[in-house]
Design goal:
single chain; 306 residues; mainly alpha; 17 helices; 64% helix; binds magnesium ion
């Protein structure tokens, strides 16, 4: 079935995904504060506001602003936006700060991105953590979502695994948003099969997504054991786990985010990715959606995202 998706609908879907991403990021990062325990969240004891968002949200806001402006990703424009808006205290990794500083001082992004990590390019989770709202924007076409995710990744992530991580998350978010429009929750296995179909089978991210599909219905600890929890801050040990959580709890945002907190590891980023996919399906303030009191506790988004 083909249908027309109006710009306002695209923006509304992307904004809901961004709400899920930023609340997951901001709440997840609270669990790096010493003494704060996953059990507190499980018992509904929320950390005191405001919850500051981190690099995941700052970059995702640039992606949404670029789409709102032009309807597509222009890599030169996006690279410069990432570089100019980077506030290093937001938790950017040293590699990302270096690439963005090079771009800001005039190095073309293909050169800056390719030079990272001794010429291998970054396979970090940075391209995946910011791309969910882009997937929601392209709810009408997973192939468009995949191609635009690739473009958004390449400006900082030259390594095939870094790019594959972004493609996987964007396709998952596109399918989640499409399911919301159709009023039909996708079967978790079908969701992950659709993601795998968009990936290069030579990548570890692809193999991870296949493993995630095999582990559906198993306990969280077993998924973490096989898929990782982002503690190596690579796409390979982050993305498959996040998509296992999102596919499993697609209709329950709070439980999905609690699962990321319980799993430990790079919690702001796993919760950002999971939040972006789940909120593309649930929306905000709906049953199973992003709770409005969680949204109110999150630090406001930057003015420039509109
Ligand atoms: Mg972060």
């Amino acid at each position: 079935m083909t249908f027309t998706l109006y710009p306002d609908t695209r923006l509304a879907l992307a904004r809901d995904s961004l709400a899920g991403l930023s609340v997951g990021d901001a709440l997840g990062s609270q669990f790096f504060v010493p003494g704060r325990q996953p059990a507190d969240l499980a018992a509904d004891r929320l950390p005191p506001p405001p919850w500051q968002w981190t690099d995941d949200t700052e970059m995702a806001c640039s992606v949404v602003a670029a789409l709102a402006e032009a309807g597509r990703i222009d890599r030169d424009v996006l690279a410069l936006a990432f570089a100019e808006r980077c506030e290093p205290y937001r938790g950017y990794g040293p590699g990302a700060v270096r690439i963005l500083r090079l771009i800001r001082t005039g190095t073309p992004w293909p050169v800056a991105a390719a030079a990272a990590f001794d010429g291998q390019g970054s396979c970090g989770n940075g391209a995946a953590m910011r791309v969910g709202p882009l997937g929601a924007w392209f709810a009408d076409s997973t192939s468009r979502a995949a191609a635009q995710a690739r473009a958004s990744a390449e400006v900082t992530h030259a390594h095939p695994e870094g790019v594959a991580g972004a493609v996987a998350v964007a396709v998952a978010a596109a399918r989640a948003a499409r399911a919301r429009l159709d009023g039909d929750r996708p079967d978790p296995a079908r969701l992950l099969a659709g993601v795998a179909a968009a990936l290069d089978p030579a990548t570890e991210v692809y193999r991870g997504v296949r493993d995630a599909a095999r582990l559906l219905g198993r306990p969280l600890a077993e998924a973490v054991e096989t898929l990782g929890n982002g503690s190596r801050v690579t796409a390979q040990d982050t993305v498959a786990f996040t998509l296992w959580v999102a596919a499993t709890y697609l209709d329950d945002y709070p439980v999905a985010i609690r699962s990321c907190v319980e799993a430990g590891g790079d919690v702001d980023t796993t919760a950002a990715i999971v939040g972006s996919v789940v909120a593309a399906y649930t929306g905000v303030g709906t049953p199973g959606g992003v709770p409005t009191d969680w949204l109110a506790a999150r630090e406001p988004l930057p003015d420039w995202v509109g």
